[in-house]
Amino acid sequence: MIIYPAIDILGGKCVRLTQGRYDMSTTYSDKPWEVAEGFEKSGAKWLHIVDLDGARSGKPTNLETIKKIIDSVSIPVQLGGGIRTMEDMENLFSLGVGRVILGTSAVKSKEFVKDAVKKHGKKIAVGIDAKDGKVAISGWEEVSDFTAVDFARDIEKLGTKTIIYTDIATDGMLTGPNVSAMQEMAASVNMDVIASGGVGKIDDIKSLVPTGVCGVIVGRALYTGNLKLEECLCYQNE
Fold first, then answer.
1. Is the pTM of this model over 0.85?
2. Which position among 88, 129, 171, 192 bears the catalytic label?
3. Do the Cβ atoms of 96 and 66 come closer than 8 Å?
4. Would the pLDDT of 6 be above 70?
5. What is the pLDDT of residues 189-208, one digit of tens each?
6. Domain coordinates in residue numbering, the chain
């Protein structure tokens, strides 16, 4: 199980949102690349980055900051937020992004997912952000008609190998992940499932180990000091 420390970028700064609300953001650093360097020094094997401006506008926005982060570390980066076209993907890969995460674009066009996976294979992941069991899109500001599990099964048929599954109700709350939802998802598909949302203490990561997820994204808890990345990493590859 790989631990993915998260860096969410809003206006070029490292922030955290609470339950995906843009009006509930906390800024932790004006230099996200320094945060990335710290995570790598602590032993992280991957970084998870979200371009929050991109997610809301529908176009990758913080490209200069993203490039600085990638140039500052030697570990791979997965990135989501506003990736709606093949050109968007090509631009991000040219910056050095290791894996792109399709969100809204995947919900709106399965053909787009199919084409992306056909061209880029494992470098494509799909983010499934669930609100009351339904898939949320456009920076979590709209809710689709798809259930998370049904949508995951659909995109698996298109060749997708990795999904990032976020339970919005737990995101940024530090109250624990939705273990049953993560277990249900991991049991419903044969893709790699990366869990996101709610991790606030080391027992939360421990609770996810038997669910079958292959990775866990840790965000706010690292910034508040509730968790140290080094202690999280003891579960890496278990």
1. yes
2. 129
3. no
4. yes
5. 999 999 998 899 999 999 99
6. 2-235
